[in-house]
Amino acid sequence: MLNIAAIMGRLTADPELRQTQSGNPVTSFTVAVARSFVKQGQERETDFINVVAWRKTAEFVCRYFRKGNMIAVDGSIQARKYQDRDGNNRTAFEILAANVHFCESKSSGPEVDVPKTPIFSTGSFEDVPGDLPF
Description:
Elements: E1 5-11, E2 18-19, E3 25-34, E4 46-54, H1 55-64, E5 70-83, E6 89-102
Parallel strand pairs: 4-6
Antiparallel strand pairs: 1-3, 1-5, 2-3, 3-4, 5-6
């Protein structure tokens, strides 16, 4: 089975950080994604795709992204069933974010406090003995 989704677009609102009853950070936001094709004589259409981010990813989005920022999201599509106010069964489809990425320079979007050093450090590189196969 394969469930991979990747989108890039602009945030439609400032993301807000919430916490579950057990204290896990979560945020949900909408990304406006322009379709890659335009029918002749018509304007480009835009899809508004809902995204959910949890824990560190949620904190990262809420700290560094604002309405109008370009964002790239990769993750998986999930379906969530719920009942609306009238008691009707509904299904919502959304992307469960695994990673989010900046997509524009700091000067091209709304003012955000972007870190000057990497947020996550993977340590240092080490030499590999012998010849490389390429």
